[in-house]
Amino acid sequence: MRIAVVGSGYVGLVAGACFADLGHDVILVDNDEGKLAALRNGETPIHEKFLPELLERHRGHRLQFSHDLHEAVRASSAIFVAVGTPPTDRGDADLSYVESVAREITGAISEYKVIVEKSTVPVYTSEWVRRIILRNGADPECFDVASNPEFLREGTAVTDFLFPDRIVVGCDSERSAQLLRQVYEPLTSGSYYQRSDAIPQPDRASIPAPMIVTSSKSAELIKHASNAFLAMKISFINAVASVCESVGADVKQVCTGIGTDARIGRRFLNPGIGYGGSCFPKDVMAFRAVARECGYDFRLLDEVMHINEEQRQRFLRKVRSALWTLRGKRLGVLGLAFKGGTDDIRESPALFIVQALLQEGCKITVYDPAAMGHIEKELKSNLQCASSAYEAAAGADALLILTEWEEFANLDLHRLTSALKYPIVIDGRNLYDPELMAAHGITYYSVGRTASHSESVPAGVRNGQKKA
Ligand code: UDX
Fold first, then answer.
1. Ligand 1 centroid to residue 339 C-alpha, Å
2. How would you classify the pairing of strands 383-385 and 363-367?
3. Is-above-0.85 flag for pTM?
4. In testing the pocket of ligand 1, which one of 339, 353, 402 has its CB within 8 Å of the most ligand atoms?
5. How do 2-6 and 78-81 pair as beta strands?
6. Per-residue model confidence as pLDDT tens digits over 355-393
7. 272 Cβ inside 6 Å of ligand 1
8. pLDDT tens digit sequence for 58-89
């Protein structure tokens, strides 16, 4: 099938490369000539496992890059719209890019095509897209608008796309549903998974991929409700972690206890410094705004956002209670990305914490395995950048762990303690066992667990820290 993907951001680029891997002919359209040139030259603009291989495999063959939206639409049966939907000042999604694509493609719709929303958009967007295309003179028999939300996570985007828990297609006509079934046929029939060159299967893959066909409005809601639910799960466990800290319970044990209930599940139940990234913060806010507009006061989501913000403040209080005064203190920081496995620092709670500590007069040396290149110039001038975790720890009053990178969970603790000025680790991601840290003489603060104090800390100071 010939497919156009409009927008070469995270979702568009991954979807384009994966559609090509399923055997379709894909034209990826973007109006940023610089980005297109980089893609044509073999660059991969985002840090994403398997993406360089897929781009290499299909570039110039099944995957073309173009700025000509009209030509791409004319040549394709399915047009996936994956342009940005940034938040406005009011918290709802700015759909002006979606609207302008709808307007622009109208002239190229001469035979039947399905326009598919791939960006995360609020309910009613597909109705509006349809209305805009009709207003601009397209024949109603020549197109349908469908919604096919994407659930991919950064860092595992390619495997999430090719081994999805489910594929949701929201279609209001059988003709469009049929076309989308064809697009995903290699996944739903399982034929893709039998290929010797298929991307390796991750754990817990549902094979063949199940497809859920719904109305377009339901599909739009499924996307927002899924992200809001996951964010709620994280805020819930962060709130439970705060209670654990007050009563001296261990949140990891609590997570195992509640997560083994199949109705709850263990995944997305890790407490930390709150969720970040380009999706959860934006989507929870947008879903809140959508509900308000539809006449429902979704206050539960206000609390989800409030707990998330409070979680960062709690972490900052922990740093203060571990170090007493902050002005002039040297801190080693591990992690800037909003989560492990990605170079993305958008809405990163780690970045927020670093900025807050700089304002309090700390001197910070930071290390992140992938995100260092994304630090803004102004911030960079206030930071020292290290090229390893041990370099970040060298001479520091304490080490802060802010991103759940696997390499941060496997540090050589002897090497770490000899690098640090004081053996204090404040872990916002619960990567270590408090007993192990205590055995290495490390004073260790984590989330939802009692702090463990190294024997070398005088008892009076220890008590003071506990009280604070
Ligand atoms: C998310 C959704 O998971 C995905 O389905 C959607 O398409 C896009 O948004 P992503 O933003 O890539 O994906 O990140 P995700 O892995 O969901 O993590 C989001 C944030 O939650 C990160 O900051 C992460 O550190 C945090 N998180 C996640 C926790 O704090 N605890 C958890 O248990 C899981």
1. 7
2. parallel
3. yes
4. 339
5. parallel
6. 999 999 999 999 999 999 998 888 889 999 999 999 999
7. yes
8. 999 999 999 999 999 999 999 999 999 998 99
Expressed in angstroms and rounded, the spacing between residue 454 Cα and the centre of ligand 1 is 33
Determine if ligand 1 sits within 6 Å of the CB of residue 151: yes
Catalytic member of 279, 294, 362, 385 = 279
What is the per-residue pLDDT for 455? Answer: 55
Q: Where do the domains of the chain lie, and which CATH numbers do they carry? A: 2-214 (3.40.50.720), 248-468 (3.40.50.720)
Q: Cα dist. 347→73, 196, 277, 351 in Å?
A: 34, 39, 5, 8
CA of 16 to the centre of ligand 1 (A): 22
Q: What is the pLDDT of residues 192-219, one digit of tens each?
A: 999 999 999 999 899 999 999 999 999 9
Q: Look at residues 167, 139, 149 and name the one whose alpha carbon lies nearest to residue 81.
A: 149
Residue 171 annotated among the catalytic residues of the structure: no
| Cα three-residue angle 170-172-177, rounded to 5 degrees | 65
CA distances from 24 to 17, 36, 54, 74, 278 (A): 10, 20, 13, 16, 28
Q: Check pocket membership of 427 for ligand 1, CB cut-off 6 A.
A: no
What is d(CA 417, CA 125) in angstroms, rounded to the nearest whole number? 54
Find the 156 Cα to ligand 1 centroid distance in Å: 11
